[in-house]
Structure formats: structure tokens, C-alpha cells
Amino acid sequence: MNRNIIPHLAIAALPFLSAAAHASSDEVWKQLAADVEAKCKEAGVAIERPNVAIDPFGTSHYGLALVTGKPKGAKGLVAQICVYDKQEKTLEIGSAMDAKKLGLTPAK
Predict the structure, then answer these.
(1) Measured torsion, CA atoms of residues 99, 102, 105, 108, in degrees rounded to the nearest 10
(2) Residue span of the signal peptide, if any (predicted)?
(3) I want to staple 44 with a disulfide (CB 3.0 to 4.6 A). Which of 49, 65, 67, 87 is the partner?
């Protein structure tokens, strides 16, 4: 085989490899978001029906989310910060903070 053709074949295959990598990377992001949402909802035990807003990318090491909702047995709206370790697949959740104090509720 003519060795001069190898670089041309590699360049011709590059768009196909790039498309495959992009598709798998989209799937990885979707799976990460699903994991973060499920685990943060489960960890939001202080909230009746937790709503999870996921940072689409997080940081290089952590998936991030904000869990909000009505606190169990009380009125109002609270928020908790949820941090998911991408490598260990574990998470930590912060304490419930008053959403009004955080500026997350509309001003009257």
C-alpha cells in the first residue's frame, strides 16, 4: 500500500470519529444529569417534593444542583445545594436555606 495515502485516509475518517465522540459525550452528559437529579432528589429529605435544577456541566470534578421545595412540616420555600462527586459517584447536600433570604422568591 502506498504510504502517502495513510494521512489522507486518517483525515477523511476524522469527521466520522468526531461525530461518534460527540454523540457518546452527549449521552455521558445526559447520564450524569440523570444521576445527579436522582441522587439529589433522594438526598433532599427535608423537602416534601424536591425540585432539582442541575448545572448542565458542573465543574471538572463535581456535578452541581440546587434542590428547592416546601420544607416538610413547615411553610415557605427552602433551597439546598447538592454536590455530586463525578469520580466517586457520591454526593453531599447542604442544609435547608430560606429561599426568600437567598433572593429566589419574587419580591412583593
Answers:
(1) 120
(2) 1-23
(3) 67
- Residue 80: which of 63, 93, 64 has the closest Cα? 93
pLDDT tens, the chain, 108 aa long: 455 555 444 454 445 444 444 445 888 888 989 999 999 999 999 999 999 999 988 899 999 999 999 999 999 999 999 999 999 999 999 999 998 888 887 776
Q: What is the pTM of this model?
A: 0.72
Q: Which three cell numbers stand for residue 91?
A: 454526593
Task: Report which of 99, 96, 37 is spatially closest to residue 72, judged by C-alpha positions.
Answer: 96
